[in-house]
Records
---
Amino acid sequence: MERARRAKAALGDRLFILGHHYQRDEVIQFADVTGDSFKLAREAAARPNAEFIVFCGVHFMAESADILTAPEQKVILPDLAAGCSMADMARLAQVEDAWDVLADAGVADVTVPVTYMNSSADIKAFCGKHDGVVCTSSNAKAVLKWALNRGEKVLFFPDQHLGRNTAVLQMGMSLDDCVVYDPHKYNGGLTAEELQAATMILWKGHCSVHGRFTHEAVDEVRARIPGVNVLVHPECQHEVVLKSDLIGSTEFIIKTIQQAEPGSKWAIGTELNLVKRLANDHPDLEITFLEQHVCYCATMNRIDLPHLVWALENLAQGHVVNQITVDPETEHYAKAALQRMLDLPGETARD
Ligand code: 13P
Ligand code: SF4
């Protein structure tokens, strides 16, 4: 910790550290700003004077920061193995194949592609090229509204759960309006008629952390803790969200807990580092993790204190390590899709 402090002090205003809420305590204590992926994208774009943006989060977030910052600014990811299994579930070649399937069904022209922030830069660029947009869990409703004002259908990737939860619980669609496109099946496993009838074409992807919460865990916690409020992230499965009391992004979860009545009881379904931190910071509340068998996000957890110290000390000594760069063409189109998102009003929650 002393070495991290020294390196940070030596770099001064040249350095800005962003920390996602799922980061370890040992890392988050050094962040200049903490946030969900939407807030961090905005914060990165608002720091034109920082020479180095050290991103304590995962690869797709650092790519977005590079896209939204000036060419001379350098974005650093302390461990290059900090990827995201959900982002890996949608590859550019698969998405291009899906677009051809939609074209063959005669619906590509009326479909707006929407990618969750949790996707690689080339997928965001695909959306930018096809008049689509990026969304995060805190603005998915506003983004879907925007998209459905411009087209008749949305191809939503990579998280089927965020897409379904937003469409059904916030946009008034039914489950029958949604179909699931499986990139590992011929034509996505869908007929042309199914694609023509659907409003939401959901990519078959999920978060390997949030996707593991079960609706049985909601029943179990309600039986165990009478009066408990169940608060979950919209990356959770639809059955889990249906049984919960409140749903929202990590930033929404934090605000909800900050405003909670003293003595109230909460079961939270999101990443464990955040739930533990909330429980520590709010001893006046009874906070429990929703499911006993869900682990930390393995890739978020890769950013640990040794990796952060290594990156900061190298920067302080003039060695730029683990820089994340997006090539200019990808950046151009991805920025268009990101900027459309940043220009929209945000905040979603359901109660
Ligand atoms: P938010 O930060 O947008 O809530 O997303 C959660 C997440 O899974 C980030 O990887
Ligand atoms: Fe990816 Fe899920 Fe980890 Fe977020 S929590 S980085 S979506 S695997």
---
Amino acid sequence: MTDAAVRRVTVLGSTGSIGQSTLDVIARHPERYRVHALTAHRSREALLAQCLTHGPAVAVLDDEQDAAWLRRELAAAGLETEVAAGAEALCDVARDSAADTVMAAIVGGAGLLPSLAAARAGKRVLLANKEALVMSGALFMDAVARSGATLLPIDSEHNAIYQCLPAEHRGGLSRHGVSQLLLTASGGPFRHLGHEALERVTPEQACTHPNWSMGRKISVDSATLMNKGLELIEACWLFDAEPGQVQVVVHPQSIVHSMAAYDDGSVIAQMGNPDMRTPIAYGLAWPERIDAGVRSLDLFQVARLDFERPDETRFPCLRLARQAMLAGGTAPAVLNAANEVAVDAFLNRRLGFAAIGRVVEDVLDGQAVAAAESLEAIIDADRRARAAAVRQLQRHAGVRQA
Ligand code: NAD
Ligand code: MG
């Protein structure tokens, strides 16, 4: 491969679970990829270690003092990495013309502006940050269309569906003979727990996922099924689907990563071991295929694949997400913001697990839906919903774990 063909990759949120997996895949293919920029929120030691390994041109942290520390450490190690700080610097690296590929792997609404900046700049955007799309779906897809960005979903389910759909699938699923998207869900660690037991689960239990190793926020979302709700919304935007065209299927083995059902009765599934390096490698190399370091699937070892209907009474977040998507406008941004506040409170032992859904429901009920026509409208809805969620926390503090 010539030097001109080497892809220059920026990894937003490089110290996280997806960020680390991305760097793992990149390191397997030094002839194909070079790291342009790495970013982290506060984990400066982890970012330093990544800079020493990958030698990026730019590194970004949130805080100016952390950035000054990193600058000194990198200079002492003889690296010429430029170090910047703050939210604006994140958007600058996301749109930097020196990179052609951006992995958007910041968690939560904090990823919205940088992910959107990469989309507006026409990058190959590897989208892991589902919250950005949930908040700003119409705006985000419009930015991609206008700039000519290549949007490749990294969320394993959406990456699977992308692989199962025809290459050209915009303009409504029915135009392409697709009747339904089947979005698989592991069901999370509490799939079998009853209502009362769900009241008492701890952050440690919620963060121990049976099949996937992930960041703390998405682990809690997987346990409440809000993750599947966010993914339902994400699927609607990515694939021009109506909420009614997306069926959630609980599949505890996490081997079938999702499916597309066609008018002729065919159902195409994408399978593999649950390892995010597969969708990441797909996004990096698309339309080619490269080694991701993932062991091949042994169906004899898997032996069986189970499928169940999700229980929306024990896991109301899935229903709330569907309702928010049907309500449209800023409702998904409100859902997301309330959920982020509630999950953070749960992780900090200020809210019980089952109260996460109650907080989200009350915030959704209390906020008027506005048109999501501008970034300002979305950010305003997000801000109001966060404030409303904080007020709800006191009401719902109820059952807490020790
Ligand atoms: P994580 O918590 O492990 O990592 C988050 C990264 O974002 C870290 O590098 C952190 O420093 C950075 N970050 C956090 N807050 C920030 C802020 N305010 N400003 C700037 N940077 C900030 O999360 P993760 O599990 O890697 O998930 C990242 C995203 O990918 C999420 O949106 C998640 O839903 C999505 N995703 C993750 C997985 C997975 O397997 N982990 C699978 C599918 C989708
Ligand atoms: Mg997923």
